[in-house]
Amino acid sequence: MPINIPKNLPAGEHLREEKIFVMEEDRAKTQQIRPLNILIFNLMPEKEKTELQLLRLLGNTPLQVNITFLNTATHESRNVSKSHLQLFYSTFKEIRHRRFDGMIITGAPVEKMAFEEVNYWQEISEIMDWSKKNVTSVMHICWGAQAALYHHYDIGKFELPEKCSGVYSHVITDLTVDLVRGFSDLFTAPHSRYTSVSIDEVRNHPDLRLLSYSEEAGVFIVQSKDNKNIMITGHLEYDATTLADEYSRDVAKGLNIAVPVNYFPNDNPSHEPMNTWRAHTHLLFSNWLNYYVYQETPYEWDFAEDHIEFHI
């Protein structure tokens, strides 16, 4: 089934080239079905790259998905044109009356700052509170995961001695959990962050379940026991070259940065890296959409305040 995207979204052309079935809004409105409505709160600086990465994953399932992009109202994005945001993004004020089957909160380049120092922290806190009643399941990525652990479960973060950057091996703690159904006992995933969270705090929290971790990179996948929130501290959505692009950017800035671990062949940045995590990425997003969104979302969202109903 197709993924429904805003008309003329630049990512659409790339998705079609990759043979991913996309449908623009005008045609989607003629379909006599109730698609899943997914909200993407995109906090990444290079928004168009993140759009493509996430849409590629959401569009590779049998489910028809409508996408709404959300941007901050209290922070001005500097790495994307205002016209792109005006055409394809909404603010919280514009969508807060709606309900969504699923939501993704991405990472953000603010992890060294205390949460309360982030100029849109009050806004994202309000959105996370709103999601409790208005979204069936929320997936949080990297800084978004740390923000959720702090806001919902009072688990803070700490700064690492050096950046955690590379592709690390991970284990699964319980292969019977639907989110990791089909995963291998050992799998790889990229990380790119300066901060982390305590694995003991996660393990000991009564409302959380640690599903996956790395001996080197620490906590990876955390699930709330009510299945409402999923926190992923790494970047499974990354393309093969994303870590290379970040490394080149940091070197160009003159930062004392190490070569990403287990990433470049022979640890040589002049060699082309390979994507060794793609299959598990698709599996995780498919499991999330199926078991935590599609099978859990209400048959009808009934809005008493504005009498809008959606039907599957």
From TrEMBL:
The active site is at C142 (acyl-thioester intermediate), H235 (proton acceptor), E237. Substrate binds at K163, S192, R249. GO terms for molecular function: homoserine O-acetyltransferase activity; homoserine O-succinyltransferase activity. It comes from the Bacteria. Its EC number is 2.3.1.31. It is found in: Cytoplasm. It catalyses: L-homoserine + acetyl-CoA = O-acetyl-L-homoserine + CoA. InterPro entries: Class_I_gatase-like, HST_MetA, MetA_family. Keywords: Acyltransferase, Amino-acid biosynthesis, Cytoplasm, Methionine biosynthesis, Transferase. Its main location: cytoplasm. It is an enzyme of class 2 (transferase). The record marks E111 as: Important for acyl-CoA specificity. It holds the Pfam family HTS. The record marks S192 as: Important for substrate specificity. Pathway: Amino-acid biosynthesis; L-methionine biosynthesis via de novo pathway; O-acetyl-L-homoserine from L-homoserine: step 1/1. HAMAP family: MetA_acyltransf (MF_00295). Transfers an acetyl group from acetyl-CoA to L-homoserine, forming acetyl-L-homoserine. Belongs to the MetA family. This is Homoserine O-acetyltransferase. It comes from Lysinibacillus parviboronicapiens. The lineage of its organism: Bacteria, Bacillati, Bacillota, Bacilli, Bacillales.
